[in-house]
Structures are given as C-alpha cells and as structure tokens.
Amino acid sequence: MTIRWLLAALHLLALGVGLGAVWARGRALQAQLDVPGLRRVFYADAWWGIAALLWIGTGLVRAFGGFEKGSFYYLHNHLFWAKMALLVAILVLELGPMIALIRWRGGVARGAVPDTRAASRFARISFVQAVLVVFMVLAATAMARGYGVPAR
Ligand code: HEM
C-alpha cells in the first residue's frame, strides 16, 4: 500500500518537474546561447531527462507490477494506448535535441563553441513536447477513471 502511494506520488512529481523543465528548455533555447545561456539549456534538459526516467520507471511498475488496476485493464484500454502513442511521439521528437545537446555539452566541456543553429527548431520541439505532455495527462486522468474501456 505504501509502495503504491509512493509510486503514484513520484509519477505525479515527475509531471511537475518535467513539464516545467521542457518549457524552461524551450525558453532557454530561444535566449542568447553564450556559455551561461548554454548552461541554462543543459540544466533544464537534465531535469527533463530525470522526469522522463521517473515517469517511465514508475509508470511501468504501476501498470505492470500489479500496484494499480492490473496489466489486463491497461492493455485493453484505448486511452492507455493513446497515452503510450503520445509518449512515443515525445521520444521520437527528442532524438534530435538529445543527440545535439550531448554534442553541445561535449563542446562546452572542451572549451569549444558549439554550432547552435538548430536551437530555435529545438525550442519549437520542446514546446510541442510540453503540449503532448498535457495530452498525456488528459489521457491518463480519463484512463484512471474508467474511460477507454472497450464496449462489450
Ligand atoms: C510523460 C509521461 C507521463 C505522464 C505525463 C503521465 C501522467 C500521468 C498522470 C497525471 C496520472 C494520474 C492519473 C490520475 O490518477 O488521475 C498517471 C497515472 C498512471 N500512469 Fe502515467 N504518465 C506518464 C507516463 C507513464 C508511463 C510510461 C506509464 C506506463 C507504461 C504510465 C502508467 C500510468 C499508470 C498505470 C497510472 C495509474 C492509472 C490508474 O490509477 O489506474 N504512465 N499518469
């Protein structure tokens, strides 16, 4: 019971952290990208990554570890699959920024100036991801309340 509660709390805390972080990353990517500016991008990006790990880690355990309604409920729920499709879209969108930010981090660590021409595209991607997270919340809260179960 305590684990179930803690998993739910962590899952929701990831929402607070992740939504703020991806929005902050988008804003930071629109600002001047000198070294302090890049550090702001990296900081927001690190919290976005932590939120993603928390979401996916706690989410998988909640869905398939027998803590909530059980695997059968989720695997047969349209809104669960909608939520997973949104997650996949977020992860696919993340590929570009993730690879570039790893390079930028390496560049800054070596004292080089990274090529940040894609920054405004990555900012737009971050804002789209924030909107997709909001849709995930809509799907999750409906799924948790019995919507999305196929009619018999
Ligand atoms: C960006 C990622 C995610 C967001 C924004 C998100 C959001 C949420 C929210 C807001 C709830 C609370 C619903 C409520 O009780 O009203 C929830 C519950 C839940 N989520 Fe997630 N979630 C994410 C990722 C995942 C993943 C990856 C999984 C599983 C593979 C997952 C599985 C669950 C489960 C099982 C519940 C409990 C539903 C219930 O009470 O029956 N979530 N999620």
**Distance separating the two termini:** 32 Å
List segments where confidence is low: pLDDT < 50 over at least 5 consecutive residues.
none
Bound ligands, named by name, code or SMILES: protoporphyrin IX containing FE
Structural class: mainly alpha
Question: Got a strand count?
Answer: 0
Spell out the helices and strands N to C: HHHHH
Shape: elongated
Provide mean pLDDT, rounded.
97
Range of helix content: over 70%
* Spatial extent as radius of gyration: 18 Å
Main sheet properties: none
* Percent strand: under 5%
Helix count equals: 5
Please explain how this structure is put together:
This protein has 152 residues and is mostly helical. 80% of the residues lie in helices and 0% in strands. The two termini are 32 Å apart. The model has no long low-confidence stretch (mean pLDDT 97). The structure holds protoporphyrin IX containing FE. The site of protoporphyrin IX containing FE has 19 residues, from helix 1, helix 2 and helix 5.
